[in-house]
Design goal:
541 residues; alpha/beta; Rossmann fold; 6-stranded parallel beta sheet; 19 helices; elongated
Length: 541
């Protein structure tokens, strides 16, 4: 099912016939429209020619994460002093003003500047400082804001001035009657540009909405083996009665209790809902919750290979909820390592079950630890796509123990926990984690900020990173978003072998999950609706 064109606003959508849909092109993005203005320093030197020139050139340099009125006045003044205005901007990899900066990727920042009529050329500077590009381009003038001379020339500006003056150029300092901070503006109200970022990634890697639809349809029948800790999440609803007068004891009245399959089991249910043929290997206790889990998974068609350990309970996390608030959580579990006998049974299942992908879903409740992970890694089928997800930021787990996997999907907190790094920016953090885990693809989940994808070992290359923003329309409940992302990105990689398409589909699945109350397995129908909506937003929104 393709997108619908709204002929009368956002309400009363009128379906389009297939023939009509083919007539509607994807909206032209900023990067496509103004690409002719974006050049390299070497190309610009050829265009301008060496000084002295008949038509003089002036160059401005900055981050330009958000172009504000102060920037505009700076650029207008610079343009008034020369025939050609060149804007140079710092590449993403050299920006360290905040953990999640830049907010806008370098290609979009370049296009934003190129869209100004007064700007003739834009250069993305891949160096930490503009010194090398100043030497290559040799602009007649190099413009800086007045703040760089207000209290004496800073050392970095002095370096730039030395190069400019050495070849006969001149420094110009623009008036500073209006000064704005991009950082302050972003902190005040971050720009919403998820669809522009999406277009950027789709253009760069050749992803189309039809390709994503085909990937969803192609997930049916893919064989996936999930191995991990089952958790039964319980919600005990109570009403407040009061407290004891002699002791600080709270009294609540039991109303009802609901149980839900969670942990690695819900990952298996997401995969099954997407159409995959799922085998699930886990450890359960000899108790009533074991039967609840087995019945629940059997009902949705998951082949469950449960190993029963009578010495431990089925993991249960029971939240006591009063008036919509979680008053208390009571956990029933045993986190000690599984025995050698159980490990042997589980590894035998991994090696013997035919699978297109194997997913290790680690909640650190006894199955995965430093002793067992090497054995689980050793028995992985050579041809299977190998995935690891380790949701253990509050315990002694570490995603980097899963070495050499095809895909890992930790969140930022888990990454910082694994590396013992609370200070680095997101790109350096992802680089470290990618290298230390020796993975092939890293999807670093950033919550409401979406995710950063690292896809190559050469972290200096632009092509090694990209950002996918969240596609949540209305947040209801974020629980389970990571499970949905893991399931759909894994299956998309099996179908398309395209990490960009897989990342986008994973983000869309996470968004669908956030729009539901509870961890509800995401269906292909829900994914098609989300793709249709996002395509509509890109084309007409």
């Amino acid at each position: 099912m393709g997108p619908e064109l709204d002929r009368e606003g956002d309400r009363n959508l009128v379906p389009l016939h297939v023939e009509e849909r083919r007539l509607i092109p994807m909206a032209i993005s900023l990067t496509e429209r103004y690409r002719h203005k974006i050049v390299t320093a070497e190309q610009l030197r050829e265009i301008l020619g060496p000084p002295p020139r008949k038509k003089r050139a002036i160059m401005c340099h900055g981050v330009f994460d958000v172009v504000h009125p102060g920037h505009v006045r700076h650029l207008l003044y610079a343009k008034s002093k020369a025939d050609t205005l060149v804007c140079s901007l710092t590449a993403d990899k050299h920006i360290s003003k905040g953990a999640h900066r830049p907010h806008i990727p370098q290609e979009l920042r370049a296009a934003n500047l190129a869209a100004f009529e007064m700007v003739d050329y834009v250069v993305i500077d891949t160096n930490a400082k503009p010194l090398e590009n100043i030497q290559i381009i040799q602009p007649d003038y190099f413009a800086k804001g007045f703040e760089y001379t207000a209290v004496g020339m800073p050392p970095k500006t002095a370096e730039e001035a030395a190069i400019v003056e050495a070849y006969g150029g001149e420094m110009i300092f623009t008036p500073g009657d209006i000064v704005y901070s991009s950082t302050s503006l972003i902190n005040l109200a971050p720009p919403t540009i998820q669809y522009e970022k999406l277009q950027l990634v789709m253009e760069r890697y050749g992803v189309t909405f039809d390709k994503m639809r085909a990937a969803i349809d192609g997930m049916v029948g893919k064989k996936v083996h999930v191995i991990g800790d089952t958790i039964v999440d319980s919600y005990t609803q109570c009403a407040m009665i009061g407290g004891q007068t002699k002791t600080p004891t709270m009294s609540v009245l039991f109303e009802r209790k609901q149980d839900f399959v969670g942990g690695a089991a819900i990952v298996a249910k997401h995969l099954r809902a997407a159409g995959a043929d799922v085998t699930f290997t886990t450890v359960l206790g000899e108790d009533g919750l074991k039967d609840f889990v087995l019945d629940d998974l059997h009902e949705v068609g998951i082949d469950t290979k449960a190993i029963i350990d009578s010495t431990r309970p089925t993991v249960n996390k029971n939240a006591i909820v009063v008036g919509g608030y979680r008053l208390l959580k009571v956990d029933t579990l045993d986190n000690r390592s599984i025995s050698d006998t159980i490990l042997s049974q589980m590894t035998s299942a991994v090696s013997s079950v035919p699978a297109d992908a194997v997913v290790y879903s680690d909640f650190r409740h006894g199955i995965f630890n430093r002793r067992t992970i090497p054995e689980f890694a050793r028995v992985l089928p050579p041809a299977a796509y190998k995935v690891a997800d380790s949701q253990v930021a509050s315990r002694w787990g570490n995603i980097t123990e899963f070495q050499g996997f095809d895909l890992i999907t930790p969140n930022e907190r888990e990454a910082r926990f694994a590396l013992g790094d609370q200070d680095s920016g997101i790109r350096p953090l992802a680089s470290q984690l990618y290298d230390k885990s020796a993975c092939k693809l890293l999807m670093l989940k950033l919550g409401e900020r979406g995710m950063l994808v690292c896809r190559g070992a050469d972290h200096e290359l632009l092509d090694s990173f990209y950002v996918i923003d969240t596609f949540v329309e209305q947040l209801v409940d974020p629980v389970g978003a990571g499970d949905a992302l893991l399931a759909y990105s894994t299956l998309a990689m099996l179908v398309s072998q395209d990490d960009a398409a897989a990342s986008i589909l994973g983000a869309m699945a996470a968004a669908c999950e956030c729009e539901y109350d509870g961890n509800i397995p995401i269906t292909p129908e829900a994914m098609h609706r989300k793709i249709d909506l996002v395509e509509k937003r890109v084309n007409f929104g």
